[in-house]
Amino acid sequence: MTEFTDRLQRKLGHVLADSALLVQALTHRSFGQLNNERFEFLGDSVLNCAISMALFERFPDLREGELSRVRASLVCQDALARVALDLDLGPCLRMGEGELRSGGFRRPSILADALEALIAAVCLDAGFEAARAMVERLFEPLLAEVDPAAPGKDPKTALQEWLQGRRIALPTYSMIRVLGEAHAQEFEVACEVPKFSLRTVGRGSSRRMAEQRSAELALAQLRENE
Fold this sequence. Notes:
The protein is mainly α and 226 residues long. The protein contains ten helices and three strands; from the N terminus they run αααααααααβββα.
């Protein structure tokens, strides 16, 4: 084990008894056949269940649809990548030379996938309750920010309605570039609101996610300048 992985386990609050699970969870598919893809599958389910339980307990008055909306905001790529960055997960990843050179250890999609794999590793190592407790610790800052009363519209819809309410022409979205290898692409999309000479750029693992991110940035700037 390395200094990075030792520090990572301290931040996780869990030292894995089976270090092989940790190694596999941190291994990107570009490194070899024994990688973390299967762990991602399991980790995604464990994460969704753990967050569902946390929200169910914290917000007893929320209806099913509201709980689903809030959960979606906590288990999305952006949220997972934020937690992964707080853990300084990137330097711990084992990746092929091509991915390393292209900065894959900083890519939100790779960081999010690796975090899901880590959650699976802890579940396999110590059981669901240990994984659930770890998820609650790691996501506590995000859980504390949850505002159930906040509107649940996606950023593109919210931006469109904000502009329509002021009779302003709708924004346009344009692809700037596609980054990374074919199996792990990241899209960069611009959102422009001509009325305000506003242009924001968002990134995501799909064009749709990049558009949503650029719309989110644009709406934040517009609201700030109201």
